[in-house]
Amino acid sequence: MKAKFDDRKGWIHAEEGITEGITESKMGLTQKQAKFLAVIKDFIASNGYSPSYEELKQMNGMKSKSNVHAYVYALKKRGYLDIIRHSKRSIVVL
Hints:
single chain, two-stranded antiparallel ribbon
């Protein structure tokens, strides 16, 4: 798999279509972040609401919710997600 590093966007995996639709304000994703985001999008599309951290942990084969938290906040920082504070199932895909 070929990937290139852009100083502004980070790692870009162009042949997988990960960078399609990224605006100037968004940065590129790692493969794991792209997979994590795809899991969230699929869950929301099939259920109509966002997954809980526990569900994300199970769906991604993670051992702790702190890993989920790290991924969610990394995606938020990069402009792919937003979080409604003090609310359950509060992940919003932008």
